[in-house]
Records
---
Amino acid sequence: MKVLLLEHPRSIMQERCNDIANTPLSSCLISGYAAGMLMKGGHAVEIIEGYLEGLSYEQIEERIRAFAPDILGVHMVYHWREDFALFAFLERVGQSRLASAITAYGFFATLAAPDILRQCAAVDAVIIGEAEAPFAALAEAGAAGISFTTIPGIAVRDSSGGIKYTNQETVRDLDAIPFPVRTEALYRLPEVNLLGSRGCYGSCTFCYINGYYGKESPWRGRSPENIAAEITRIVERTGKREFYFTDPNFFGPGQAGQDRALRIAALLKPISILFGIEGRVNDIHDDTIAALVDAGLRHMLIGLESGRDESLRRMNKMTTVAQNENALRILRKRGIEPNVGFIMFEPDSSLEDIRINFEFLKRNDLLKNLPVTANVLYHHQIVLEGTQAFHALEREGRLESRPTPYEGNAQLRNPGVAVLADIMRQVTNVLFSRMDGIWSGKLMEPPGMQRQYEEINRILVALFEINLSALEAGDIFDAGGIALRVRAAEKEIEDILNDCQII
Ligand code: SF4
């Protein structure tokens, strides 16, 4: 069979320009893993990087026409209510009979399968969860000319307008899956992405990782030997030495997770690479971090999420503020300034929560670097299908005016918190949008920006402090007052950026 896998263009709404939770980083290899499995089965596979290569739908249509696939696979990524251009394109592809069958896969496809099958008639099937095995079985069924509708993990429409499928087993032995296929576009990224594990042993209310893999999915790790073999092969073939583990949680649970990380460090050290990882703060142990740094670890994202234990409990983070601070201390001691995940505004935040968060950030020197400051002072909890939070808020009737069935718009319970969140979102959006080219690495940064960054950083911290203090004192902000405060801060920031000729 000829299978074409599409990474479609993603159009980002201006007001969502820095909302990053629509798909986890690990999804960047979903198509590559499916391609590896399909190639192992003898199928002809091509991947179109519509997103990374900036292709238009017209260009993609030409590529599909030229390849003439039997199956068009679409890695569907939620792009903030802008899915209809993709759906319209797929309808055109279906009507022109450019592919015999269209199959969607990925996090969004898995968690929004009923909506996708209802809204887009051109999609014949949706893979629920990991794509490799269902895709391989789908191609085999196509080659044999038999129905694919009973393959585990493949959802199709039923006669009553709903969907039907049987769950697939999650992949237990990740070493048994072929290495992912990487396109030239993936190799052009600053780091080579790889996936050393799947799932997470955590259960945070805002997270959909395990909703994708299945409720019973445990954290599953590839063997250190298998990971080292893939990295060695990439280094030998491409000369690239900078890698990023896109695992939502690099560390497995408990001592076994630490032992595995130490074994990975021992195997990676002689290969001489640099790499980054992401993980939970309770897995930051000094001896393990020291070994990983010795093996090339240079950066890390940790999910702090809050500076208050009550909030961490509300999110079911299963960590504490003390563990957050301990992780920061260990990483800094080992020379790593971590990138941090932080949810300043939860649906149930009180002004007291916000104050405690703010003091935590100040106390831990997390408000001194502009990109970090801008992120931690505005981040609100995004509520997506597949998360515990989505279903809890839905049960409570708090997902008012949901923009799509997939994303819930939860009102912040506390009016003062909602005002502060609104102000910070509007002001930081201006900054994110002006800095997008530079912070995404597409544009060169003008020289000598440090002083301007420090000035904008000071403006943001002061904006937060002044408005939080006023709200704590009981001030009432009307729409006009909010607009004035936003406009004044925006103007200060824009004047600085204009001086640097950042447009
Ligand atoms: S620790 Fe991270 S990956 Fe794990 S459930 Fe929480 S947010 Fe998700």
Note: The chain is about 45% helix and 15% strand.
---
Amino acid sequence: MNHKALTKTHLKLLTDIFPGQSMTVQPAEMLIYGTDAGKRFSMPQAVVRPERTEQVQELMRMAQQERIPVVTRARGTNVVSACVPHQGGIVLSCLQMNKILSINSDDFTAHVQPGVVTHDLQQEVLKKGLLYPPDPASKKFCTIGGNIATNAGGMSAVKYGVTKDYVLGLEAVLPGGEIIKTGGRLHKNVVGYDLTKLLTGSEGSLGVIVKACLKLLPVPEASASILVCFENEAHALQGVMAVFRAGILPCAMEFMPKEVMQCLSEYGPVPWPEKAAACLIIRLDGSAACLEQEITKLRSALQDVLYFDMAMGEDEEHIWEIRRLINPASFKLGPDKVSDDVVVPRGEILRAIKGIRTIGKKFGLKILAFGHIGDGNIHVNFMHDKSIEGEQQKVSSAREEVLRLVLSLEGSISGEHGVGLSKKAYLSWQLRDKELQIMRDIKKVFDPYNILNPGTGV
Ligand SMILES: Cc1cc2nc3c(=O)[nH]c(=O)nc-3n(C[C@H](O)[C@H](O)[C@H](O)COP(=O)(O)OP(=O)(O)OC[C@H]3O[C@@H](n4cnc5c(N)ncnc54)[C@H](O)[C@@H]3O)c2cc1C
């Protein structure tokens, strides 16, 4: 349901808080703020671009008093329509709050505003020999605030964890305008409930993050990437288990089944022999001496290998280029794509991949399932052509079967992308009434009048 029109008084208040270019109600300018990578659209009633925390506070004070929805957004790269203002209201863009405030090499911390682009922060800390590990594939164009609000993960999650593992403290403005400060420069802190973790992954529904203190690590001395191909999936999966059992914790471990390899080979030249039907891309890092030992261990742990290629340092990129080509190559199978990012326990991956293949056959759909095998996170891409009658319905039925399959394997319907509007209908498939009720009660404590990102997430 759309929020009623903003009054002249509202607009006057907004222009007082956001002078000049920091606010707009021009439809042409607001168009882009009505959508995100989830592709739904709804026109905002106003867009504001604060530069200071006080502006966010004043906005939230007014919005709560007047019961106007506020939808916080950054780069809009989330794929679940988590920042589409589908009930109207004001879109708050955090992109003008984009400063790296400090990098502290003694604490191994960085203080940042939410609109800093993730890759920019990584490059800045690298200059001081420090590492900010979370690495969503979108890192060159998404922000720290968006990453915190979605608890973004990436390929290196298997060793380094996800965004929540690097958020030490937050400052957030609540509906009503009050600021809360959680955590701080501390690497350990067990006083009270962990509000930092609660805000992390809350998809903008509890408060507007205006500052974050992030944990940094030392940069590892050396790294190596390995492409290893097998004759069948069972061998590849045995390889995964063998690597972990050998005591190796890779910083990335990606899996590609035969459908993906075939799609890549139709797209361009590939290095593996024709017989190869599954492959792993593994990245190791650490001290040069440890790395050498781990490579030796890994070589002896992997059995039934058809093809092996290894690169170190800057040369590693040619191996990862193969992984990056999956997205463009996938469109050879169909002009349209619906993607899910399900997770299963690592021991259930083979069952999940086979089950997804069976569902694809049942619906006559081309489904590419591949991904972060090290942490059980599988990207499921339903390739189709929506101009063909009935195709979209087939995708949505197949998608529901995949989600049910994953839940039957004790998995989760999302490992990275979150709930937003896209997965809301399936929440009760995974969470029981009591858990959902607790989450909704928490939302009421933070946002009693449901003005922040209303209707998305839980
Ligand atoms: C090509 C591509 C690759 C991707 N790869 C990955 C991946 O590997 N891993 C992964 O996890 N995701 C991935 N994503 C999804 C997306 O990039 C992440 O969800 C990212 O964290 C969103 O960041 P953003 O700056 O674009 O935030 P937005 O999309 O603008 O916002 C995302 C959510 O955060 C909230 N939000 C934003 N800023 C704030 C703030 N300051 N305070 C409170 N709430 C806020 C919004 O309300 C919304 O709910 C990918 C997306 C694309 C398009």
Note: Residues 36-37, 72-79, 82-83, 94, 114, 136-138, 142-143, 145-147, 149-150, 152-154, 203-204, 208-209, 416-417, 453 surround flavin-adenine dinucleotide (CB under 6 Å).
